[in-house]
Batch of 2 targets.
Target 1
Amino acid sequence: GENVEQHPSTLSVQEGDSAVIKCTYSDSASNYFPWYKQELGKRPQLIIDIRSNVGEKKDQRIAVTLNKTAKHFSLHITETQPEDSAVYFCAARKSGGSNYKLTFGKGTLLTVNP
Amino acid sequence: NAGVTQTPKFQVLKTGQSMTLQCAQDMNHEYMSWYRQDPGMGLRLIHYSVGAGITDQGEVPNGYNVSRSTTEDFPLRLLSAAPSQTSVYFCASRRGQTTEAFFGQGTRLTVV
């Protein structure tokens, strides 16, 4: 099955700096890569996603890049703010057949220091 | 719309007890899943369903049963609770294979 590795497990930055979280996946057939943000005590919520036919996607201060050859994708947050502090999860979904499962990474705890 | 609703929010069980975690969605989503979240382990898939009457096992299915008699409901049953099942459980639903997953608010379960 699919395996998703996420790094780093914790990341601390100063307000205004950029943050980058990286994920690698094992199955080259994966075609959908979402990122979820989970604030303390809350449910995970989608912040951005990318499909395998696209190399980069941006939404204001958040961007995701995908390198299919290397089988990795990254989340980039620019101009970080204290409210960006949360756990971030990447995920991958394998295409084809009856495979409907999303496989998640283990999460990155991002702390933005004022 | 309420989205995905899970009940209860908190539960304490004794070892060996059984219980059902409820999950309901009002978005007419085909796909529903149950995850457990443990520190440092991310979100691990327990069971999932691609439609009424169809369920399948995920990564960590042992000790749990599910059924999907309607599109809206996807209950998770713990047959005989064990301390290893202490966790936060999330139900999620999504419309299609590559669309956003909406999560419930979670159930914090403690087995003593």
Target 2
Amino acid sequence: DIQMTQSPSSLSASIGDRVTITCRASRTINSYLNWYQQRPGKAPKLLIYVASSLQSGVSSRFTGSGSGADFTLTISNLQPEDFATYYCQQSYFAPFTFGQGTKLEI
Amino acid sequence: EVQLEESGGGLVQPGGSLRLSCAASGFTFNSYWMHWVRQAPGKGLEWVSRINVDESNTIYADSVKGRFTISRDNAKNTLYLQMNNLRAEDTAVYYCSRDSSGFYQFIDYWGQGTLVTVSS
């Protein structure tokens, strides 16, 4: 199975900050990497697919990059609604594993 | 608007069975592959299973293989997850989700989830 490792596991930031979350796969997954946001008590929401494509309706403050095995999610100009948990997931090969999550806190 | 509504969760004893349903609307259900993903209380997301449009291709996580069965009824726009021989570690919120089903496949929409609790 492909292991997905996110860092950091938690992150504190302030409104207006820019933050970066990293996701590393245990082997190359080309660009089959997706990012999800999950607010407490809610279902996950797709932010970025295929490493860098912004899902329709998602703020342009979210940017994804990377290929191969190393990927990043950058959130610019943090807003109150951005404080949530973020997960990466590889969709290259089953089982379609998720990272352990990164909790973004104020 | 894509809508996915899970049902069928509840409390079940270890070794018991449960069938989850997911009613889909707002898109052409029989054109999309579908997934189940679960989340244990306070934990991260775990992919469970995926099914293609005509049920000819199904895959499972090792943790549920041989115990869970994914299926669908395209006439009813409904996805199912039959869960047998349930264990305490199967306790989780189960999310029904849609696969983008394009050249690049990824989960693009999620339901709100249904809680399954396995306990005596």
